[in-house]
Amino acid sequence: MSWADIYPWSPPEPGEPVVRRLYDQVRGAILSGALKPGGRLPSSRDFSTRLGVARASVVAAYDLLLAEGYAEGRAGSGTYVSADLSGMLDVKPQTPAPSARPPRIPARARVMDELTFPTPQAEPRLFTTGRTLLDARALDAWSASTRRALRTLGPVHFGYSDAAGEAPLRAAIADYLRAARGVICTPDQVIVTSGAQHAVDIAVRLLLHRGDSVWMEDPGYPATLHALTVAGVAIHHVPVDRSGLVVARGVAVAPEARVAFVTPSHQYPLGVTLSMARRLELLAWAREAGAWIVEDDYASEFRYAGPPLASLQGLDGGERVIYVGTLNKALFPGLRMGYAVVPKALATAFANARQVIDRQPPTLTQAIVLDFMREGQFAAHIRRRRLTDKGQRDALASALTDQLSHLLEVDVPDQGMHLIAYLKDGRSDLEVEAAAAEAGLYVRAISRLYRQVAPRQGLMLGFSGFPARLMAGGVARLAKVLG
After folding, report:
1. What confidence tens digit (pLDDT) does each residue in 452-478 have?
2. What CA–CA distance (Å, rounded) separates 47 from 327?
3. pLDDT tens digit string along 270-324?
4. I need a surface site. Which of 196, 263, 287, 438 has the fewest CB within 10 A?
5. 347 and 425 part of one domain
6. How many CB atoms lie within 10 A of CB 172?
7. Stretch (H or E) spanning 80
8. How far is 166 from 154, CA to CA, in rounded Å?
9. What is the pTM (predicted TM-score) of this model?
10. Number of separate helices (H) and strands (E) present in the chain
11. Which domain holds residue 37?
12. What's the total number of domains in the chain?
């Protein structure tokens, strides 16, 4: 008889995972020394009978112990405690010596720890920004593309693929951008990313060293600011007026900046468009300074008055502008797909950086998007979305004007997915934001997005993710908040 035969084994409690309970008991007895090396364990049949559990559960627990080296099997004899437990029995929490030093937390980790992000909402509140809607036709078409992609799973899905994205999808994106935005590119310049922010982050990693000078719009997009802050670069906050980035101010404060980060088509958050004169001025500075421009065209699809302005990348010819876009706003944020169009001199480095960070974009998602585009559904969806979003924008603007013109100055944008309503009475937009949250509304205070420019008090209200019929009622609730 072995010690294991008289050990006080206890059956699992009701609802307790049986295999884990058996494994933990045997392992604990071994580590405590109650079961000695080389000792025989009960047979799976006897053990299961004794504890009133299925024999398969005992076999599974023994398999775990065998795999981890706590037990060993002997042909025709049974299962035994491993004869060699060196390195296992002495595993105990170590008390640090008085002279021991804790690992140093790097400065970059401390910066990361200090960043703040909006809390994801299980149920979206009215006026939340960045949301999208798919109508019934788009949903049906997306479902059909998904079914086709699943029916035709090819070898590419069962191994690793091109980190820059699948060639057919990159070609489709290049065709779309040439037609829709005047981007000058070939498919090998297109890098598929998880979204615009992913592309911006790669650009920061590749183009900048700690201490380098950059231009950043003021106010500007917080996610870009986060990426630059973590990189440890010298950020020069360049003001924005009704014509967009004040290029002359950037030249005055940091003429030798390495990169300018801009949102020229729909400035975030103010919604203004960079004028043609300023676009040419910005490109002239970049040529003179030997600098790069990162053009974040995050809302390029949604222009409601006239044709889209030419992309900076197209004006430049593709030599010094990294053009960044996203399908997450054109389709839906859960898609997690965007792209960067990079100068040919950077294409290999950009693709390699993307591989180092995340290996490759998901091939199945790429196949679905490609089918959706090839079937003409993407272009049709964008046309319908423009009309829908314009109706939502107009409904929101009309309700704000009708109900709150005495308190708010509404800036109706020609493009994008949100509008800005400036407070007239001098109250704090942060206080309004908090009060609106209590009323179940999401209005974002823009004052926190300013850095060196004197902040204006205003509210950012998203209209793209909610039906037009909800706008008047939502504004009525906001009117109660504003009193």
Report:
1. 999 999 999 999 989 999 999 999 999
2. 58
3. 999 999 999 999 999 999 999 999 999 998 889 998 777 779 999 998 789 999 9
4. 438
5. no
6. 21
7. strand 78-81
8. 13
9. 0.81
10. 17, 14
11. 3-81
12. 3
